[in-house]
Amino acid sequence: KMDEDDDDIPQLSSHTLAALQEFYVEQQQREGIKTSQGFNQYSIGSIEEDWQLSQFWYSDETASCLANEAVVAAGKGGRIACVSAPSVYQKLKEQDGKDFSVCILEYDRRFSVYGEEFIFYDYNHPLNLPENILPHSFDIVIADPPYLSEECLQKTAETIKYLTKGKILLCTGAIMEELAAKHLGVKICKFIPKHSRNLANEFRCYVNYASGLD
Which residues form the signal peptide (predicted)? Predict the structure, then answer.
């Protein structure tokens, strides 16, 4: 009787088993790298992108360029807010000891590992922010709305306008150019941001101040 039941248990093919084992080994190796001494928890890739949350990390070069632009724009002792732009936040944190402060507003709670600098953020509730985040308290806001829709941009724009003293650096699709101008008064830059994985949509940066991205 038991033998008959055993026959009903689905068996994985040897090929599937080998692939599965390879996946687990790679995963363990990645985790090993992450927990080994000298690993920088802020580096891009330390938290893997989740496509279900519409996450696409910038390339290392793009994240560095945008982080450096934010530091210059914020000025000495400046405050920077990264709204749905975690790979720029991570690049800013790599510049540990520089004279600026930064917060990350992000829906993905995995980023809570960054402690008090993490602020849970849902663009559907654009002004649902902690009491200690005062209006117009950031020298620059860099934002990358998760979806290419006017609704998402409009709601994220409410957050941006609440946070910023004036300067805005927006990263979104090229098709959003007119809407970005309408909701935030920003203009397209010559600099073309790239992602670690190629996106189907053309992506661009927009600013409302004289930036180093032209």
Answer: none
Question: Residues 17-43, buried b or exposed e (16+ Cβ, 10 A)?
Answer: eeeeeeeeeeeeeeeeeeeeeeeeebb
Beta bridge partners of 140: 80, 167
Domain of 126, CATH number, reads 3.40.50.150
Write out the H or E segment, with its range, that includes residue 120.
Answer: strand 118-120
Name the helix (H) or strand (E) containing 142.
strand 138-143
**Cβ neighbour number for residue 213 with a 10 Å cutoff:** 19
Write down how long the chain is: 214
CA distance to 38, 112, 119, per residue, from 130 (Å): 33, 15, 8
Domain assignment of residue 48, yes or no? no
Q: What is the pTM of this model?
A: 0.75
Q: How many structural domains is the chain composed of?
A: 1
Q: Is residue 150 part of a domain?
A: yes
SS3 162: helix
Q: Which domain holds residue 140?
A: 54-207
**Residue 91 maps to a domain:** yes
pLDDT in tens, 18-37: 666 665 555 555 554 444 33
CA distances from 56 to 27, 48, 80, 83, 196 (A): 20, 9, 21, 14, 8
